Amino acid sequence: MAPDEYCDKTRYEMADLYLDLAKTLYEAGAAVQRVTDSVRWLAGELGDTNVHIFVGYETIELSILHHDHIESRLYVIREPFKVNITVLHQVSQLLHRIPSYKGDICAIRAEILRIQNGKPIYPKPLIIFLTSIACVSFGWLNHADISSLFIIGISAFCALSIKFRYGKRLNNIYLSTLITASAGGFIAAILSRIIPTATPEVALISSVLFLIPGFLLIDGGLDIIRDHTSCGIVRLVSAFTHICIISGSLLIPLGLLGTMIQVNGPAPDLIFSILTMSIAAGIAAFGFALLFNTPLFVLPGCIICGMAGRMIREIGLSFGLDTFFCIFSGMVVATSIAAYYGRLTRVPGVFIAVIAGITMIPGLAMIKGLHGLFAIAHTGTVLSETMVMYSLQQCLYAGIVAFILIAGIIIPSLVIYRTTPRV
């Protein structure tokens, strides 16, 4: 639609402008508070003080109160949001340039439409290749051997290709997750039977790591804490549904692995281990950042946060500190750096922190626990008490670490952004 069609500066057009802004932010993955703060910021800059907005999981309702009537708008959200950090950055830049538009709403709206219709920064083949490298780096963080790293690269590349090729055609995000996770899991399991490897479980979980709904979990948690309960609960339910689908999709590939024994190699030099782990975390953060259309100038921040968080974790463990405390401390440091870097680049710092936190997801513990529970579920199978306890311990460990990672992002974010409008 041509910008000239928006040059009637009436209250009707203002309501449409605010709704377009809210829709653009929400569909790019913004938390509810950022959507409402941005709309109110824009309304204040344009002289509207009686603008009210409600953001639900499936609808956005907006109204402008006049002295004699109310203008209302309703937008029905038809598709789940897809994180697009470039869109969030461009909207933030637009809002901070509003005075330069001198109240020209047709120009503002034309810019919002341009942002909505923007193309991805990176070509799909590059995203697929570098995200596969990120999955390989995650495998290295979980002590995968060389054979497993090769398997992860191939499996992740194939799974990503399937997701990009057929994801939209399936018309259902959960079905897309199911197909992608199943494909990646089967390819990894089959290759693990063909190519000798001592760490097949690492290969299996690393191949589908990019499907973990980290942004849904964080946005849902932030929405609930900021009193946007209905939207937050639905987002958390959606995230846990994704996790259940991924776990269920890996059950049959786990059966193909059979009984595996992971062989631990000699302990590497401490300093060398910390450096290599930090570098691998930075590489993983870089690759996953591309998956969310992160602007080029934000990528160094993702790498720094990923490396810093992992380095704090590894240094703490080397001094014999509690594992959970080290993970929480690493995530808090990464989130704090992300907040500062986000302010410099006008990008939500929380999103940079989530990308950094992906590298500390307890993927190996999750898959080991799931593997053990899968074995327990077989009727007629007699298992030792030690194996049962080990499987339950791994599941509990994975759950606690996931909770700690979420807390390590949300708590610092609440402190840092407690009074600052999220625009």
Explain what this protein looks like in three dimensions.
- The chain has 18 helices and 3 strands.
- The chain is mainly α.
- It has a 3-stranded antiparallel β-sheet with strand order 1-2-3, covered by helices on one side.
- Strand 2 and strand 3 form a beta hairpin.
- Helix 6 runs antiparallel to helix 7 and helix 15 packs parallel to helix 18.
- The longest helix is centred in the C-terminal third of the chain and has 32 residues, at 385-416.
- It is globular.
- Mean pLDDT is 85; it is low at 260-264.
Short overview:
By secondary structure, the protein is mainly alpha-helical. It contains 18 helices and 3 strands.
Task: List strands and helices in order, with pairings.
Elements: H1 11-27, H2 32-45, E1 51-55, E2 59-65, E3 70-76, H3 85-96, H4 98-101, H5 105-116, H6 124-141, H7 146-166, H8 173-194, H9 200-206, H10 214-225, H11 229-249, H12 251-257, H13 270-291, H14 299-318, H15 323-345, H16 349-358, H17 363-377, H18 385-416
Antiparallel strand pairs: 1-2, 2-3
Distance between the termini: 26 Å
pLDDT < 50 stretches: 260-264
Q: Which structural class fits the helix and strand makeup? A: mainly alpha
Radius of gyration: 23 Å
Strand line-up in the sheet with most strands: 1-2-3
Largest sheet: 3 strands, antiparallel
Instruction: Output the helix-strand order.
Output: HHEEEHHHHHHHHHHHHHHHH
Strand content: under 5%
Question: What is the averaged pLDDT score?
Answer: 85
Percent helix range: 55-70%
The 3D shape can be described as globular
Q: How large is the count of helical segments?
A: 18
**Tally of strands:** 3
